[in-house]
Structure formats: C-alpha cells, structure tokens
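Thanks for the sequence, V.! I ran DUF4249 family protein right away. Repeating your input here for the record:
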Amino acid sequence: MKSLYKLIAVFLLLILVGCTKEIEIDFAHEPQVFISGVLLNQTGNVNVHIQRTVPVDVETIDPVNDATVSLYQKDQNGVVSLLTNNFTATNGTYTSLETLSPVLNNMYWVEVELADGTNYRSAEERLKPPVELKEVTRKNGLTRVVFKDPADDINFYLVHFSYSNNGQFISDEYLVANDKLFDGNDQAFVEDDDDTGNYVTVTVYNINFQTYQFHLNALLQREDQIDEGDDDDDDSGDPGRLFSSPPAHLIGNIINVETNKAALGYFGISSVSSIEGSL
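Predicted structure:
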C-alpha cells in the first residue's frame, strides 16, 4: 500500500510540474519627481536637481528642465524674503544666476513649481554654525576626526573621508553621525575603518535631522547595492551612482504642497568644515 501512495504522489508531482509555466509580471511604473540640493555656509551659486524616477531596468535619467525654482529665507526676527527665483536649467540641474551669501542661524527652503502646476516645498531648515575641527589621526587601523561638538543643541553630521597616496586619490567614504553620545564634548570624534593612503581630507557637514535621516537611508541603500553588485566593479563605491536613477523610498524633507504628502528627495541646509593631514 505504501508503494501505491508513493506512486500516486509522484504522479501528482509530475502533473503539477507539467502544468507550470513562467509568468512575466508587468508592474506599471508611475514616474515621481525627485528633488535634491544643498545650501552651504559659503558664498556661491546654489544648485537644485530635479528629475523623474525611471523603471528599475532603465539606467538613464529623466531630467525636468521646465520647472520654476524659488529660494526663500526667514531671518531670526521671523521676516520672510525671497532670495532668488532666477535659475538656469541644464539636464535637470538648476543653478542660481546670482551668488548668494547665507546667514548663520537663518532658516532656508526651496519651492518648486512644475509646468503642470504641481508645487513642492522643502522643510525650513536652520543654517547651523560650522563645527571646529581639531585634528585627524589614524590609530589601530581607524581614521579619526576630532572636533568640538556645540553644546545645548542636537547636532547631526555627514562626514566625508577622502584618501590619497602621494597626491593620487585612492578612495573615499561617507558616514553619518549624531551627538547623542557626545553632546557638548570638546573631543568628540567620528571614525572610519579605512586604513588606505597616507593622506586624508575630512569634510564635516553640520546638518539638520531630516537631511541626516535622508543620508542615513541613502547610505544604507548604497551598501545594499554594493553588496548585491559585482565586487569587481570599480564604480561600485561612487555615491553619485545612487542618484543615477532615484530610489523610490528615499523620502526626505520635500512635500507636495497640494496634498501635504511627503515627496522624494531633500534640500539640505548645512555648514561645512574641512581638515586634512598626513597619516
């Protein structure tokens, strides 16, 4: 009897295998607008990047060149003013025609109007003071940048380590950090486990929470892409590849004004400090 049961089981398995076929699932792609940019504590032009998302199997970008971009500020007395709405667009990159000089502790944001009338707005973010960088060292295979964390303020950082050897670029790394464990510490530090090169340039961006959250998610996704990709790909470590086709779940500080729903991307307000040295 057991043999009969086995024969019936095999027969049913053959029927099931013989009836299977490959089914292609076609997910409809709905393009979404992706906005990104940053305003630094430096005199210069401001860039805002606008593009639409593309299907996952498309490697090219879909730039938006017919939008209207406006940059606003609110001073410490609460007075709101339009800094500029004069931008020129090239391949989705909007560059201000004027050079601007942002003021520390003022609030800044951008508003974007598409050709179809859809409006987007970034969150108001404060331009925090740059942090004082003290030294950069390497010990036990770790590269450490030491700085003074401002007291009585919640601070978030994007840190860029760029390594070179005898003047030749070798590699770089982006890290994010917050001051939960070292608020107000004169010897606060962030470490990178890269021990290549004999010279390093470290750039520290003092950013706001929503921009920090965006970069944290972006770096996590970048790591996932590298882990799933070919380790022999020389471009795998280039963070710019992350935005060649904007990932759909990277929500930042942009909202659709009409719906009040979160949109893709961010416009960050950040001060910047740099230090370099031999290792």
